[in-house]
Design brief:
Shape: rod-shaped
Radius of gyration: 25 Å
C-alpha cells in the first residue's frame, strides 16, 4: 500500500495534468483563432490590381 504522501502527490500531479483538458481539446480541434474572410469584395475594391494578380 502506498503512503499517504505518495497518494497525495500522485493525485495532485494527475489533477494538474488533467486541468483544462476540455479547453485544450477544443483548441486542438477548432484552433484558437476564429476563421474570418480574407478575400472579401470590399478588400478587392480597395486593392483591385493586387487582388487580381496570379
Amino acid at each position: 500500500m502506498a503512503s499517504n504522501t505518495k497518494q497525495t502527490s500522485f493525485r495532485r500531479a494527475l489533477r494538474l495534468k488533467k486541468a483544462g483538458r476540455k479547453a485544450k481539446n477544443q483548441r486542438r480541434l477548432h484552433g484558437s483563432t476564429p476563421s474570418f474572410p480574407i478575400h472579401t469584395p470590399e478588400a478587392d475594391a480597395n486593392a483591385p490590381d493586387q487582388a487580381k494578380q496570379d
